Amino acid sequence: MDYEDAANKLIKYSKALAKGSLSSAYGLAMGEGPVLAYICRSKEPLNPSDLAKRLGYTRSRMTRILDSLAAKGYVKRESDKNDGRRVIVTATEEGRKYSRDTRDEGVGNLADSLSVLGEDDTRELIRVLEKAYSITYDREGIVIPDSKK
Questions:
Q1: Contacts (Cβ under 8 Å, ≥6 apart) of 14
Q2: pTM of the entire structure?
């Protein structure tokens, strides 16, 4: 098998899928949806550096994402009450509502797309993606939140 060709196809198709059905799961610019969802589900205080590390973004990319989410009123930054040098990011009520609403709509849209594949192909797609996910993220120690929480 030509693994470089397979890698190029995976990159091409996953980018196209992310711009199509998957991006509608959040209705935000690329990267903003997963960050907002993670912040909404988090039970612990998050600072931008920890958030970037956990989700696999650079610190500068995380700053741009948080700036955009803050401008939309979906997150707020505050000084940590225990350490004034540290910034904590939390979701606003508007951000929580937006994340919930758009996730539900996006999941419905993606479910419609998956139904075209049929049950067997959908199960196979999920099986392969789960395997690729575990190879990629288990190796790098990146923690991605469980969307079922």
A1: none
A2: 0.59
